[in-house]
Amino acid sequence: MRSKRARKRFAAFGPGIITGGAGDDPAGIVTYTIIGSTTGFSLLWLMLLSTPMMIAVQDTVSRIAVATKKSLPEITNAFYSKKFTVFMVSILSIANIFTIAADMEAVAVILEILTGIESIYFLVPVTALIAYLVMFKKYKTVRNVLIFLTAILLVYIISAILAKPDKSYDLCHKAFITKNFIF
Question: Positive or negative CA dihedral for 63, 67, 68, 71?
């Protein structure tokens, strides 16, 4: 009985785990890398401020959606004009399309690094695989695949330990200074 209850609780975390992992897109990773390599640990204290604020925003948005049983465009349309709602949804759609394209390109480049085959040859198969999963597989299958892919993000923690940050910081900082990067 306890294991069944524990499985149900764990299953409830699925969407949250996937959403949290989705925040580690290529743009985020580049930002983390640049900030980390140029400032080291000096800005880490900002997590103490930003994390509770991000949790509060996500919690509030979730509660509004559950309480109203409406989507973001429906709620926006109730308070603003239809033109504004269409504009907002259009901007969000464009941003999402570019983010998805960047993510798929990043996967293709990673596969290029691993195999030595040009990334362009991976774009269509990766896109087809994602489309197949989303269109033809059950939610549970897609959820399990996404949770598995999110679990791979634990490699960040392992690589941070193996990189010996004090030494890596010095090397990266010198590399960015000598290349005259402007941030």
Answer: positive
The residues spanned by each domain of the chain are 1-69+164-183, 72-152
Report angle CA 61, 55, 9 to the nearest 5 degrees: 85
Residues of the chain with pLDDT under 50: 181-183
CB 80 within 8 Å of CB 99? no
Task: Give dist(CA 35, CA 176) in Å, integer.
Answer: 11
Q: By the 8 A CB rule, do 133 and 145 touch?
A: yes
Q: How far apart are CA 69 and CA 75, in angstroms?
A: 10
Two tokens at 3? 């294991």
**CA 16 – CA 37 distance, rounded (Å):** 29
Nearest to 70 by CA among 78, 80, 59, 58: 78
How many Cβ atoms are within 10 Å of 75's Cβ, its own excluded? 15
Length of the chain counted residue by residue: 183
Which pLDDT belongs to residue 181? 47
Closest by CA position to 24, among listed 106, 122, 98, 138:
106
